[in-house]
Automatic annotation (TrEMBL):
Residues 33-119 form the H repeat-associated protein N-terminal domain. The chain crosses the membrane at residues 49-72. Residues 1-20 form the signal peptide. The keyword rRNA-binding does not apply. It comes from Actinoplanes sichuanensis. InterPro entries: ISAs1_transpos, Transposase_11, Transposase_11-like, YbfD_N. This is ISAs1 family transposase. Residues 135-354 form the Transposase IS4-like domain. It comes from the Bacteria. Keywords: Membrane, Signal, Transmembrane, Transmembrane helix.
Length: 403
């Protein structure tokens, strides 16, 4: 590609996105009210326990650290009668098998949407969102290693995290005979249901989602896409690698120290939305990030290439640097917490929608603690468990309260 087709970045003042729809006090409903919208899979004849009560217990128990279906029931049985009544149990409490049979039959996608919407109503509203503070959504998948189905197959979930609030906006189950790529569009549908619109949002995904169909789909929803480019797109990878990076000045550079290492991250970006630009739909900029690490006197260097559908006027190099690092949040602040704090990979839930449902409950628990200001989720779950009455008051109240 001729270098004359590559124009330098134009630095302009960022404009403002359309403000998000405000959340009124009347919409800040308690958990029991929100869960009333979950479809009940049970036969209406013989129903003894309200669905919203059973689900509220599951949410509260996982917020308090329960890591299995059995632990959810134990938490309920440990409550006194007054606390049980406040959650909706006025005629005794169910045994563990009753709770389990219900949870594994739920519509996991619908439950994820309802709980994410409930959490979002309890976060502070930001009246205006300049481009630099646009909604950044990290997309990534996770295999539930303990949830083995018939034939040894494992359950795989694709999730989307709002990196500014720590709330998992949506989660869909990947078909056992497929991969994450076909699940991307249903995930967008679920995100759009929670947010109301994807206009102006930036979705960041790994190289698996560097697909032309994804770029077209995201743009059709008036959102933007940033993806890493690797060997699964060999032509695009060669185009990015051959750009005249030596002639492009560094746009942003950061240096970090910690855990016995020094790391320098250098970002270069160049406009490619010109005739004869790179072969990826709606790509406005090509990005190269170089990570140089020094550990115990040894230096290593790693180079990554990305594309983004935002023009230079709305995505300066320092913004790109911040957004790229935010993609790690879904791994570090969600998936790793589910494994370490809730021991997800050791949990052998495998029946029906059970694996996806309990993963959704864990996402909700982490999101709840993030929105209440917790930085150590393990400590926050222990505090919630010791203060079960305060937890019940907080989640069932019509207005946000911290514990």
């Amino acid at each position: 590609m001729a270098s004359s087709l590559i124009t330098a970045l134009a630095v302009t003042a960022p404009t403002s996105n359309s403000p998000a729809a405000p959340v009124t006090d009347g919409e800040r409903a308690g958990l029991l009210h929100a869960l009333a919208a979950v479809p009940d899979p049970r036969d209406p004849r013989g129903v003894r326990y309200p669905l919203s009560a059973l689900l509220a217990v599951a949410v509260c128990a996982v917020i308090a650290g329960a890591s299995s279906f059995a632990a959810i029931t134990d938490w309920l049985h440990d409550l006194d009668e007054d606390a049980q009544a406040r959650l909706g149990f006025t005629r005794g409490v169910p045994v563990g098998t009753t709770v389990w049979r219900l949870l594994i039959r739920l519509d996991d996608s619908r439950l994820s949407i309802i709980l994410a919407t409930w959490l979002r109503t309890r976060t502070s509203h930001v009246p205006t969102r300049p481009n630099r503070y646009r909604t950044v959504i990290a997309v990534d998948g996770k295999t539930l290693r303990g949830a083995r189905l018939d034939g040894g197959r494992q359950v795989h979930l694709l999730s989307a995290l709002d990196t500014s609030t720590g709330i998992v906006l949506a989660q869909v189950t990947v078909d056992a005979k497929s991969n994450e790529i076909p699940a991307f569009a249903p995930l967008l549908d679920a995100i759009e249901t929670v947010l109301g619109t994807l206009t102006g949002a930036l979705l960041i995904a790994d190289a698996l989602h560097t697909q032309t169909s994804h770029a077209v789909e995201v743009t059709a929803r008036r959102a933007h896409l940033m993806v890493q480019v690797k060997g699964n797109q060999p032509t695009l990878f060669k185009q990015l690698k051959r750009l005249p990076w030596a002639q492009i000045p560094a746009g942003d550079r950061t240096r970090d120290r910690g855990h016995g290492r020094r790391e320098t991250r250098t970002v270069k970006a160049v406009t490619v939305a010109t005739p004869g630009g790179i072969g990826f739909p709606h790509a406005q900029q090509a990005v190269r990030i170089t990570r140089t690490r020094v550990i115990a006197g040894r230096t290593s260097r790693e180079t990554a290439y990305l594309t983004v559908s935002l023009p230079a006027s709305q995505a300066l190099p320092r913004d790109l640097q911040t957004w790229i690092r935010r993609h790690w949040h879904i791994e570090n602040k969600i998936h790793n917490v589910r494994d370490v704090t809730f021991r997800e990979d050791l949990h052998q839930a495998r029946t029906g929608t059970g694996p996806a449902v309990i993963a959704t409950l864990r996402n909700t628990a982490i999101g709840w603690h993030r929105t209440t200001g917790a930085t150590n989720i393990a400590r926050a779950t222990r505090q919630a468990n010791r203060r079960s009455r305060d937890l019940i008051t907080a989640v069932t109240s019509s207005y946000p309260r911290t514990q």
